[in-house]
Amino acid sequence: MVASDINNAVVKTKPSAKGSKGVDTKKRAKEEERLKQAGKCPQCAGMGKSPDGQYTCAACNGTGKYTDNSKKSE
User: Fold this and answer.
1) Is the pTM of this model over 0.85?
2) Burial state string for 6-42 with b = 16 or more CB within 10 A and e = fewer than 16
């Protein structure tokens, strides 16, 4: 009985096939591009740290500035 109730709850909370996953992906890509154009790191939004301030951003090494890594590897 409990297992079927849990299963029903999970099925009801699953996003539909028309879900907003595609919209979220487009919105996230657009925001990342905007941050790159502004010279800010898209991973930490230019903060250089995690939102709670405990960890340094690994993508920008705490600078908050965007660097194009594809140019460095060439």
Assistant:
1) no
2) eeeeeeeeeeeeeeeeeeeeeeeeeebeebeeeebbb
